[in-house]
Amino acid sequence: MSRTRIRIGTRKARWTRAGVTGAAAVAIAAALCPAATAARPAAAVPAPVPERYTAQRLVWEPCAPGATLECAPMTVPRDWHHPGAGADLTVRVSRQRAADPARRRGTLLMAAGGPGGEGLIRPTGFVKAAPKIAEVYDVVGFDQRGVGRSTRVSCQDDAEFADFFAGDFRDRSPAALRRVLDNSRKFVAGCQARSGDLLPYLTTEQTARDVDLYRALLGERKISYYGPSYASKLGATYATLFPRHVERVVLDSNIAFDGTWEEFEKGQPMSFQRRFEEDFLPWLARYDDVYHYGRTPAEAKARWEERRRALGARPLTIGGGRTLAPNQFDNGAILALYKGGTFPLLAGALAALDHWDTATDEERRNVDLIFGRYLSKEFLAEFFSVTCNDTPWTRDTAQWVRQTAEDAARYPLMGARALAFAATCAAWPAGTAPRVDVTGEGLPPVLMLNSLHDPATYYEGARRAHRALRGSRLVTVTGGDHGQYLEKNACVDAIVDRYLLTGAAPDRDTTCAATPLPVPAGHTAR
C-alpha cells in the first residue's frame, strides 16, 4: 500500500488536531469527486465540495474516560449533490492507532451492518480480535448518518415500536391485514413528522461520500475496508464510486448488491426458513436428551408450532413487562439463527417455556434475552430509511398482500412478516438516490466471504454479487453463520489476514469448512 498522503500546507498530514487549509483543501475537494462514469445518471456526480467541509479539523478526544479509542465529530453536507442546501449533519468518527507505529502500513475502515447498526465503538473489539491487523493498521470506524451519536433519524416512540411488532403476522384476516398496512403507513407518517427534512438523504450513496470525506480528512490517499452484512453493500458502493481511493476490500456476508433492496429482501424468507429447518431443527432434535423437544426435526417443528399457537392464545409477560406473543416468538428465532453458537440459548429458552411456572431466574433472563430484545426503534428507523430510499419499490400494496400470502404459507418464519416491511417501503416517499452499478472496474481483487446457509445474506444473492463484482474472490464457508471473519474459523481468518497484510488474495474462489455447531452442556453421547 502506498504510504503517500495528501499534503497539508508544507507538512505531511498526521494524527493531529491541525485543520486542512489552503491548497490542500482544494486537493481534497478534487479527490472527493469520483469518476463521472461511476454512477447513473451522469447528473448524479456531485458538485465540488465546499471548503468548509474539506478544511475542517477533526478534534479527537477519548471515546470514553481512559479509552485508547478516540472519537471526533465530522461535519458533512445534508445532500452531497447540493452541499449548500439545508443544515449540515454530524457524523461521529473514531480511530484506534496502529499498535506498532514503526510498521504502520495504512488505515483500515470498518463499518456496521443493518442498515441501523452502530459502528463508532467497533474498532475496540476488532483490534482485540485481530492483533496482527491492529499492529500495522490504524483501525477507524463511524456511526453512519442517521444512527448512534451521529445526526439521528426518529420515527416512533416505544409504544409505536411495540405495536408495529405486536400480534401474529400469520393472521391473514381482513382486519389483521388492515392493521399491518395501517401500522406501516403510520410508521412512514411518524418518520415524516419527526425527521422529514432528513429522510431523503439517508442513503448508502450519501454515506459512501461521507466515508470518502473521512478518508481525505485523515490524510490518506487510499484506505482499506472491512464490512460485514449491510456494510458489504456500503463497501461495494464506496469502491465503485471511488476506485482510486481503495487499497484492499473485504466484504463479509454479502447483500445482493447487484440488484434492488426489494429483490434482495424477497429472498430472505426462503433463507431463514432453510436455516431453521435444515440447521437448527436437526440440531435441536440431535440433543433431545437435553432439551426434550423431539427426537426428529419433524417432531421438533411440531412442538415449535404447538408453542407458537399457545402464545397466540395466551401471550406471556417476560422481563421488563414485555409481551411474548407469536411475532416475538418468531423474531427471537430469526435473531438466534444468525449464529450457530446461539442455538443453545434459543433451545434453552424453548425448554424454559415448557415449564414457565417453575422456571429459574436464569432461565427467565435467557427467555427475555432471546425473545424480548429484537431490534430497536432506532435501528428500525435507519433500516427503513436506507432500504426504502436506496432503490425503487413496488407501490401496489395489493400485490404485496398476494405475494406475502404465498411467503407466509411456504416460509412462515419470516415470510409472515414480509408484508409489514414491504408495505412500509411501498408507502415511503419516492427516493431520488442515483443508481450505482457495481462492476469491479478499476479495483484490486476484492475478497468476499459467505456461508452456504447464511439466513440474512443468503448464498444465492452473494453469488450474484460476486459475479457483478468482476475480479473478486469468493470464500465459501460450508456452514450457515452470518459473519465469517474473526469468528474462530482458522481457515477464514488466515485468508483474510494474509490479504490485508500482504495484498495476496486467493488465486481463485475457494472453500473453508465451517466450525462445528456447539454441543450443549449436559448432553450424553448416544
From TrEMBL:
Residues 412-512 form the Peptidase S33 tripeptidyl aminopeptidase-like C-terminal domain. InterPro entries: AB_hydrolase_fold, Pept_S33_TAP-like_C, Serine_prot/Carboxylest_S33. One of its GO terms (molecular function) is hydrolase activity. Transmembrane segments: none annotated. Keywords: Hydrolase, Signal. It comes from the Bacteria. Gene3D superfamilies: alpha/beta hydrolase. Residues 1-38 form the signal peptide. It holds the Pfam family Abhydrolase_4. Belongs to the peptidase S33 family. This is Peptidase. It comes from Streptomyces albireticuli. The lineage of its organism: Bacteria, Bacillati, Actinomycetota, Actinomycetes, Kitasatosporales.
